[in-house]
Design brief:
Radius of gyration: 22 Å
Largest sheet: none
Number of strands: 0
Distance between the termini: 57 Å
Helix content: over 70%
Strand content: under 5%
Shape: elongated
Structural class: mainly alpha
Order of helices and strands: HHHHH
Length: 84
């Protein structure tokens, strides 16, 4: 029984360490090429969307209330609270 457990443990370690890393890197490279390096091309636009309307005076930016729907990590919750 210990031999089966040991073989299973080694198989799981191999699958989760080697194959998963290869799949994640391969998928990232595939989508980077397929989407024509969108991470680099749209970096400025993404930066402006996230940080473009920050003000030291506490004023809202030009995008208003809907800005949090684009960039917020809790956007479904925010939408529910504001629009329901």
């Amino acid at each position: 029984m210990e031999a089966v457990t040991e073989v299973g443990s080694k198989a799981i370690d191999y699958l989760w360490n080697v194959i998963l890393i290869i799949l994640l890197c391969g998928t990232g490279i595939y989508f980077t090429i397929r989407l024509k390096f969108i991470q680099i091309r749209k970096f400025g636009e993404g930066f402006k969307l996230v940080f473009g309307n920050i003000s030291l005076k506490g004023e809202k930016g030009k995008n208003g209330q809907r800005m949090d729907l684009k960039t917020g990590s809790f956007s479904p919750w925010i939408w529910y609270r504001k629009y329901s």
